[in-house]
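During the reporting period the student researcher (J.K.) took over the structure-prediction task from the postdoctoral fellow and processed the backlog of single-chain submissions. One of the processed entries is reproduced below for the supervisory committee.
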Amino acid sequence: MDFMTAVKHVFANYANFSGRARRSEYWWFYLFNIIVNVVASIVDGAIGMPIVSIIAFLGLIIPGIAVAVRRMHDVGRSGWWLLILLVPLVGIILVIYWFVQRGTVGSNEYGNDPYDAPAAS
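J.K. obtained the following structure tokens:
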């Protein structure tokens, strides 16, 4: 899955918290999120108010959480495991570890393996 396909797929599933997400889908969207936030910060610095950053945050928070939940489903965990991020240091290490791993091969309780079917564009 390439950059544009991943971003389109995440926005097509804007608030879809069911199913599974490939590693590439999550990480390409994460890169997109970083790029948007850098651009928003530059624009905010130019105008002297954090308006664009607030709009970017509000526009990206739901799809970001949704793709993270679907990524957790891909590794066979409930999306509620994301709350472990509230535990300092240990939480971020565990979540990154899970997000970089290959998902469950074949079907799991959250759906079919996203590698078995062609990516939706």
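The committee noted the following: The chain has four helices and no strands.
J.K. will present the remaining backlog at the next meeting.
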